[in-house]
Design a protein that fits this description.
Layout lengths: L1 E6 L4 H12 L2 E9 L6 H13 L2 E6 L36 H15 L4 E3 L15 H12 L7 E3 L7 H7 L25 H12 L5 H4 L2
Parallel strand pairs: 1-2, 1-4, 2-3, 4-5
Helix pairs in contact: 5-6
């Protein structure tokens, strides 16, 4: 059986990718990271999904990065910006080099357990504001990954050209448990509905003529 490591954040996109890997008959191990993010409720979502799907789940504490990486997602004295990504304030949600850090650790894990791919849920809706979510970044990082060890591992990012509404539409047939995914940048029992991540998620389900299962379950 093919073996894969997925960076599973607990957000909608990486959860869909987990279901896709299982549907493609991969033996999947999930890895997640607590890097001091405010919206850490996603960690519980990822753990829940893995238990439900029978997937081995590893949470890595790298919360020391909170002291090093300046972002509205990590710093208590910086408010989470609201509304649209076009606003300059949305640059405050960039966590410097986050995907390279996550991918580097996940690749080492994959090489250690003889997996062949590391799956990342980066997608077209991540916008140009996040440099480490762009396709050219992923392609160049993948070249380094493939020559980093005698056991070849490649990055797998099949959602790179899809926006969130397309992701929801394409994988509805996999019966993804969207009610157990998180997207909000803010900490709380319910999504704030004001940050752009919440707004983008709401729009994705509306375009598919659905109510967000997460909101319906509250």
């Amino acid at each position: 059986m093919k073996k894969a490591v997925i960076v599973l954040s607990g957000w909608l996109d990486s959860t869909v990718l987990l279901y896709k890997l299982i549907d493609e008959w991969y033996d999947v191990c999930a890895i997640n990271f607590f890097y001091g993010q405010k919206h850490s409720k996603e960690l519980k979502c990822a753990e829940h999904i893995c238990k439900k799907m029978g997937v081995e789940y590893t949470l890595v504490d790298i919360s020391f990065l909170k002291k090093l990486l300046n972002s509205a997602l990590t710093k208590d004295d910086i408010d989470i910006p609201e509304w649209h990504y076009q606003a300059d304030t949305m640059k405050m949600t960039v966590v410097p080099n986050r995907n390279m850090i996550f991918a580097s650790i996940a690749v080492g894990y994959a090489q250690s357990i003889w997996a062949t791919i590391v799956a990342l849920g980066v997608h077209g809706g991540d916008h140009e504001i996040y440099p480490d979510c762009r396709e050219d970044f992923m392609q160049k990082l993948n070249k380094a990954v493939e020559i980093s060890d005698r056991h070849k591992v490649s990055l797998y990012y099949p959602l790179i050209h899809m926006d969130k509404s397309t992701i929801v539409n394409v994988w509805l047939h996999l019966w993804v448990d969207f009610a157990k995914t998180w997207t909000c940048y803010k900490w709380g029992e319910i999504p704030c509905g004001k940050c752009w991540s919440c707004m983008e998620r709401e729009e994705a389900f509306k375009k598919n003529w659905m109510k967000d299962p997460l909101l319906a379950s509250l």
